[in-house]
Amino acid sequence: MALKMKSYLPTEDELLEKAPVPAQIEFCNVTKLYGAVAAVKDISLSVSRGEFLTILGPSGSGKTTALMLLAGFTTPSEGDILIAGKSVSEVPSYRRDQGIVFQSYALFPHLTVARNLEFPLEMRGVNSAERAKRVSRMLERVRLSEFGGRMPSQLSGGQQQRVALARALIADPPILLLDEPLGALDRNLREQMQIEIKDLHREFGKTTICVTHDQEEALTLSDRIVVMRSGQIEQIDTPEALYDRPNTRFVANFLGEANVLEGADLKVQSDVVPSPGMVAMLRPERICVNAPTGPRRSDAEHRQSVAGVIEDMIYAGPLRKYRVRVGDTVLIAREHVASGQEVFGAGDEVRLDWLRSDVRFVTA
Ligand SMILES: Nc1ncnc2c1ncn2[C@@H]1O[C@H](COP(=O)(O)OP(=O)(O)O)[C@@H](O)[C@H]1O
Ligand SMILES: [Mg+2]
To answer: Which end of the chain is more exposed for a tag (fewer CB within 10 A), N or C?
Structure first.
């Protein structure tokens, strides 16, 4: 029979497709020295295909350096970077097939929006009919169809950043690199663009490495977050695990607010025996602020209660943040504003309750 029937047995190619995908990006003991300063110190890390990984850390912690090493704008002093299993140490930046977005947009100021988008296609030798088709499709995708003829300076910050994202994606590179992509935008626009980036990631499925110092951005966007400190990796985890189970005090403080339970008045009652050098940590939203004789929400054996005095209350829309003095420590408690809830003011005596299972131990 001349007709080719599809076999029900998987072909070798199909079997290979189903095999576990190797990491698409690997940092193997990478160090980058600038003189005596190690901007990046012995970092190892692997990123899977399609993953959205955020590098989060304070200014100067080595985030941009890590990204520039991956982009090939600078080379490691030690260690190696692999893409799809192959070392890229000899591959120049323009041949690494990565889309890059910078905080400053870095659009070509003397080219129209459409010409900006065309550029990566031209570099790859795509013919002009195909270029026009792809540019128009991409402009539509980022809702900038009417703006193709404008110069970048005639666009708002948010629009320029959408052009930069479109330009990074248009040649369909497998990897997308974002360096503080929303850093120049105001808060509302930043939140809108976070959704935009998330949608683009879902739609195009690019392996994405995003650098930011904004913890909220990292929590919102990422499959996993790498927390960096002084050139080193402090912890790698999913957003939820990082927030809920930080390993160190640094991570606990960098991702949100953290109460460290120290001192005689806050002797922690816990079933876990902390190792030496660990401190007890409690997130503000895990603390309930109650009247001293108010009802208790859980069994005594699971709960710890301490007496305190309100220092002040900060109202922030959906949240109330209390600062509560307990002996010589001030704890922060955060409560969602709800109807019928008792509100306390400075000087009020209160009882703080929390579940023992909500206490975490982190290295000091
Ligand atoms: N080209 C360079 N020359 C010298 N020092 C640099 C250079 N680039 C970065 N550094 C230093 O390396 C450290 C990390 O910088 P960077 O990677 O830009 O941090 P981040 O992006 O986290 O703010 C800083 O101490 C910075 O001053
Ligand atoms: Mg930086």
So the answer is: N
